[in-house]
Amino acid sequence: MKAQTTYGEKVADARMRFAFYGRVSTEDNQDPTLSLPRQLANCERAVAETGGRIVAHFYDVESGAMRLDARGSGKGLVGFDIPIPRDGGLVDLIEEASSGQFDAVVCESINRLSRNPSVTFRVEEQLADEGVRLWAIDEPFEESFGSIVLRHVNVGLARGYLHELKVKSRQGIETAAKQGRHAGGKPLYGYRFAEQEHPNPHKAQQGLRIKVLEPDPMTASVVKTIFHDYVIRGLTITELQRKLNSDLERYPPPQSPDPKRRTGMWGRSSVWEILHNPKYTGYQVWNRRQRRRGGKINPPEKWIWSEEPAHEPLVSREMFDRANAAAIKRDNVTKAAEGHEDYRKHIYVLRSFLRCGICGLRMHGKIRRGRNTAYYTCEINRRHSGLVPEDHPRMVYLREDKAGEKVVEFLATHLFGPDRIEALKRSLAEIGPEADNAHDEVDRLGTELDGIKKRIRRLVTNLEAQEPDNEIADDIRARLEELGTLRAKKQRALETAEKEMEQVPDPESAEALVAALPLLDVDWELVSDQDFRDVLAALNFEARYNPTKRELTIRVTLVPELTHPDGGRAPLLSVPPAGFEPATHGLGNRCSIP
Ligand SMILES: [Zn+2]
């Protein structure tokens, strides 16, 4: 077999005409108005590199699991305003193939075409009969279709998974920014949130709404004043700061999200931030800051501006540009803004994923004095006394490097290693008793709850038989109130127990989900801290440290959407490979932390 080459190199005839095919599944919550433009943009870029061009657009909003004759009804498109001209769906694409209008079909990945292998084969074959090639841009551009097998092996292969996961979610945000949707967070100073119906009808039906920015009556004028004073009147940041602080009622300061930094005054940095925030021009801007570590500001050429203004501007683009040009000349505060760089020197990769096994609260990172070693800790004096059990040690410590090693070991063996299915089976065997316990608990609480409800009904009947203001009636009322509280408490406990019961996955689905992950031999040392945290987040990673047993229990939850880019139909499944379980099970999965 020929060595694989990247696309572009192998395309002999430039100016090749491509038909785009895109698909968004109906079952998941993807927004076709974002997903399809993203698919098209990726294909356009790949096609442009080959020297070719896209001459027709076919797409569907429907399940990829359907049989071919059920495809392309167009029903899924109803209600979506998709900004791409449509020449038809999958069935039309096959019909048009004989017209000679295009030489090849391009799609983002092969499962955009279909998630049903027999459909994929048939479409490939029918296109090939018409001399039309099919190219998924995450695969090499092959001269022939002789390697259909290779293609199927390629689906879901390692290079796809982690990369796709990250790149696609990021691209989703980029596309949202381009279309002027608010990308999350709290409203920008000078604005407030207004709600609008969600443009995706599926989400709108679920009552979801999107947030848009509108000028805040109190603070919008403050922003305008700041720009005016700085650009037109030539005030320095310090002078501006003094002016604003002299009348805080008229110029209310922005609230820092960090309570410790909330001073109730204007700081230099808050003034600086406003003068440098391009969103005041009405355009949405994304990628202004690096997503890593200190969050340094990216150079302006990396910013992504929305194509249209997304909200009402508070300053003109010209005013904004002048403020920023002036800043370079006048101020040295750029340095101050970058001063956050060493703010968090040590990255605690498990931060927010790791909980204390005794109180269940999140552990936080700390350098232990004198030892100069990083730890995760749970300190009793930093907790509300009501949240901490009595037998909680004053300090719980877990060495950061040891914990990291164990997590990496877990990822290597249980998720991305060749023996992962075996590891999963062992883990599921270990949580067997846990599942039984959950069942018993649900039964027990159900019975108790029934008993309480019966007693309440009896008391109500008794109460009705009494004169309203005699003593017995008062007693009954008091008793009813107690029972009401008890009923609510048991109800909550029952709901929790039911949730726990549901979280125990059935072995078959769990195996399928784990098997859908690529086999990876990753040198985690080479993965950046932020990427590592992104992977953990994608896996819904959770860990608990039990200091008494010195054991770390790890749980990941695999969501089908992550293993298949366009989402599967299986319900959300929790797969707890129970990485490091109590020593009593003794099945080789436990880990002790020295
Ligand atoms: Zn604790």
List cofactors, ions and other ligands.
zinc ion
State Rg: 30 Å
Query: What's the N-to-C terminus distance?
Result: 50 Å
Name the structural class: alpha/beta
Give a count of the beta strands, DSSP E runs of length 2 or more.
14
- Separate helix tally: 18
Task: Note the beta-strand portion.
Answer: 5-15%
Question: Segments where pLDDT lies below 50 for 5+ residues?
Answer: 1-12, 143-150, 152-166, 178-184, 291-295, 330-344, 561-594
Helix amount: 40-55%
- Biggest pleated sheet: 4 strands, parallel
> Mean of the pLDDT scores?
74
Shape: globular
As laid out across the biggest beta sheet, the strand order is 2-1-3-4
Short description:
This protein has 594 residues and is α/β, with parallel strands linked by helices. Helix content is 41%, strand content 12%.
Structure explained in plain terms:
The protein has 594 residues and is an alpha/beta fold. 41% of the residues lie in helices and 12% in strands. The chain contains 18 helices and 14 strands. The chain has a 4-stranded parallel beta sheet with strand order 2-1-3-4, sandwiched between helices. A 3-stranded mixed beta sheet has the order 9-13-14, covered by helices on one side. Strands 10-11-12 form a 3-stranded antiparallel beta sheet. Strand 13 and strand 14 form a beta hairpin. Helix 14 packs antiparallel against helix 15. The longest helix is centred in the last third of the chain and has 46 residues. The radius of gyration is 30 Å and the shape is globular. It starts with 16 loop residues before the first strand and ends in a 31-residue tail after the last helix. 29% of the residues are buried. The structure holds zinc ion.
